[in-house]
Amino acid sequence: MQRNTVINLAVWSVLLIAVALLAVIIQYQTLALCVSYRTTTGRISETFPNNHQGIGYSYKVDGHDYSGSSYAGQIGRSFASIQLGDTVTVFYAEHHPAICTLETPKVLLVRTVGQIVAACAILPVIGIFIIQRNRLFPSLYDYGKRSAA
Fold it and tell me: 23 in a domain, yes or no?
């Protein structure tokens, strides 16, 4: 195997692992919610028609009040049919009730893992391209000159 190929594969592998670890760290709360969650009933407390048809909701866990925001599409209803005070099912992290979603955790898990896989497929390739474009790797010709000397 040529030396440049080995260097390219090694750098690509390091970039892949770095992107995967960073993506998991960034998505840690979401992944934790998907693994260990509880449900409760919440109420829609606000609507944000000019912000991607957003909604605000509030819910109680162990006597404490919490709130969150989401989008009408995540509860499977049209924005026009949503009224203040409507009930919604809230999924929250078992050990951190402030981390919540209205989206089914299984769907959320699939979307999150998909985002991590996409980042791992795209970002290392872009990194290798930038490194090659800027000629940050020594060329194979340079290796031949050094060994001949």
Answer: no
- The domain total for the chain is 1
The pair of structure tokens assigned to 19 is: 């992107």
Closest among 129, 143, 139, 47 to 88, alpha carbons compared: 47
Question: For tokens 């919610």, what's the residue?
Answer: 33
* Cβ–Cβ < 8 Å for 44, 82: yes
Say if 6 falls within a structural domain.
no
Dihedral (CA of 50, 44, 99, 17) sign: negative
Question: Tokens 């991607």 sit at which residue?
Answer: 52
- Evaluate if pTM is beyond 0.85: no
Contact 85, 44 (CB under 8 A): yes
The residue segments making up the domain with residue 56 are 29-130
In 3D, which of 31, 45, 38 has the Cα closest to residue 91? Answer: 38
How many angstroms separate the CA atoms of 13 and 54, rounded? 40
pLDDT in tens, 71-99: 887 777 788 888 899 999 999 998 999 99
Question: Residue 138 falls within a domain, yes or no?
Answer: no
Contact criterion met (CB below 8 Å) for 37 and 102: no
